[in-house]
Inverse folding.
């Protein structure tokens, strides 16, 4: 099993805690998915964090942007999630 999320490190993340981006959402695949000669395959460069502007908002406490959460404590904000989604592109040979 191979953790493709390790390839995303470096100043980015799927979750922001106290102003620091972290990658706590993991995508783990089998070696066969990365090395198959026919059928469905992928590679680490095909994993990305989906972060369009509408999923982000200015962080009220720390400089920069954070995911636009649905809730802050008990207060409804109307956002989407406190995590950004990840996308793994799959291809067929």
């Amino acid at each position: 099993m191979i953790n493709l999320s390790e390839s995303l490190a470096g100043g980015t993340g799927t979750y922001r805690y106290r102003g620091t981006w972290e990658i706590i959402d993991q995508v783990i695949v089998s070696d066969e998915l990365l090395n198959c000669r026919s059928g469905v395959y992928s590679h680490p460069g095909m994993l990305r964090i989906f972060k369009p502007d509408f999923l982000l908002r200015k962080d009220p406490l720390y400089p920069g942007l954070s995911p636009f959460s649905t809730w802050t404590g008990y207060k409804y904000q109307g956002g989407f999630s406190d995590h950004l989604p990840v996308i793994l592109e799959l291809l067929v040979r």
Summary: The chain has a mean pLDDT of 93.
